Every structure is written in structure tokens, then in C-alpha cells.
Amino acid sequence: MGRVEGRTALVTGASRGIGRAIAIELAREGAKVAINFASSEAKAQEVADEIAGFGGTCILAKANLADPKEARAMVAKVAEEFTHLDVLVNNAGITRDSMLPRMTDEQWLEVIQTNLGGCFFCTSAAIPFMTAQSYGRIINISSMNGQVPAIGQANYSASKGGIIAFTRTAAAELVHSGITVNTVSPGYTDTDMFAAVPPQLQTKIKGQIPMARFAHPEEIAKAVIFLVADGDYITGQQINVNGGAHM
Predict the structure, then answer these.
(1) For residues 194 and 224, is the Cβ–Cβ distance under 8 A?
(2) Is the separation of the CB atoms in 220 and 189 below 8 Å?
(3) Which of 135, 156, 188, 233 is catalytic?
(4) Concatenated DSSP letters for 128-197?
(5) Domain ranges, ordered by start, for the chain
């Protein structure tokens, strides 16, 4: 029996990268998983096929999380299809990098609305379902760059720093409802998003990490599994998974 057997989970931004790894790991541990995606249906289906391949249960859940109505409707639909919702992993995130003097309003708003707004929209939609059953596990995926300066990422850093603050307040408000809220903050992780970073810059970054390598997405997923399976007495906390790059 898996560590989260019988639980239901919604993972946002689960068609690739860290979200994909989290969805697969939750399914391996026995959860029924909803794979959220915005546009990459083929990629999301690949995740679903992999989960089905080892006997797991999953559904696809399309929604643009920058749209509050779409996000909330998607959460409600998942809860209805599964009959309940135990776990929400707010992982979806985008980047629109630019130095501040050149950053457009659109670049700022798109990142804030998707990363931070999507986290709020999905969380607020999930709360009634979790409160009704006096149980819920909400894990928000932030970033090391929400804690340290990240040149060219003022929008992304603000969104991820906001997620950390949001997590603490949500945890304080929901603690008496049987709902825990925590943050997992990855460092530099070997994903397709990070693959866009120029190779010479990747080499420089790797040299600044005490463990001298980038994280694997599965290592982030294991932190999420821990919080879901064994984190009953943990709420309002942040777990950094960054190889010692920020302590």
C-alpha cells in the first residue's frame, strides 16, 4: 500500500518539470491525481499515460490559472469527479524575464497573475471542500528566487516571495479546520524551463551550489510526499530543497 493510498490530489502545472514529477510520485504512492495544464494537452496526456502504465489513477484538468473563474471551476470539477479533494499542490508557474527598466506591465502582470494569483484562486476554491471533511494538505511550490535577489526576475521573485507569505497566513487561518499549508522552495532544478538558461550561465550557477549539481524534479516531489504523508504536525513552514545554495 502506498503512503497516500486513497487520497485525491490536484497538481497544477503538472504537464512537465516539477509538476510532472509530483503528479507521478503522488500516483505511485496511491493517490488519485488530477493533472492540471493550460495548453500542453499532449504533454499532460503523456503524464497520464505514464501513470496508467503502472496502474495509477488520474484525470486531466485543463484551466488557465490566471483566470479566476477558470481556476475555481477546475478545482470544483476535480472535487466533484473525485467526490472529495484531499491534496492541492500549487505548482504552476511561468517566467517572463527582463531587467526592470525594460520590464513591461504585461510581463509583470502575467507572471504575478499566474504564479501568485493562480495559487490564491485554487486555494480559495479548495478550502470549502477540505473544511467540510476537516482534512486538507496544501503545498505551494515557491522558489529559492523568492528569497534571494534574482537579476532580471523581479516579477518572478515577487510572485514566489508572495507565495511564501501567503502560505504562512493561510496556515494560520486554516489550522483549526484540519488543513495544513506549507511551502516547498526548490533551488535550481533540471527542468525544461531551466534548460533555456545559457550553458555558460548554468556552469557558473552550478559552481555556486555546495552540492555541485542541480536538483532532480523527483527530489522536489519527495518533499511534497513527505508533507502529504507524514506532515500532520507541520504547517506554515517552508522546506528548501536547493543543495545548500541558500541556507
Answers:
(1) no
(2) yes
(3) 156
(4) HHHHHHT-EEEEEE--GGGTS--TTBHHHHHHHHHHHHHHHHHHHHHGGGTEEEEEEEE-SB-SHHHHTS
(5) 8-239
User: Of 89, 71, 76, 72, which Cα lies nearest the Cα of 33?
Assistant: 89
- HSE toward the beta carbon, residue 86, CA cutoff 13 A: 17
- 8-239 adopts what CATH topology? Rossmann fold (3.40.50)
Query: Which cell numbers in the block locate residue 66?
Result: 490566471
156 is catalytic: yes
CA within 13 Å, CB half, 227:
31
DSSP state of 98: B
Q: Judge contact between 235 and 173, C-beta under 8 A.
A: no
Flag whether pLDDT at 195 surpasses 80.
no
Task: Express each pLDDT in 127-151 by its tens digit.
Answer: 999 999 999 999 999 999 999 999 9
Contact 11, 91 (CB under 8 A): yes
Is-contact 180 136, C-beta < 8 A? yes
Q: Which positions ≥6 away from 103 have C-beta within 8 Å?
A: 154, 155
Query: What grid cell was written down for 24?
Result: 507521478
Nearest to 122 by CA among 168, 89, 84, 156: 89
Look at residue 212 and give its three-state secondary structure. Answer: coil
Q: Name 197's Cβ contacts closer than 8 Å, sequence gap at least 6.
A: 205
What is the C-alpha separation between 50 and 43, in angstroms, rounded? Answer: 11
Q: Half-sphere exposure of residue 211, counting CA atoms within 13 Å on the CB side?
A: 14
- pLDDT digits over 210-221, tens only? 999 999 999 999
pTM reported for the whole predicted model: 0.96
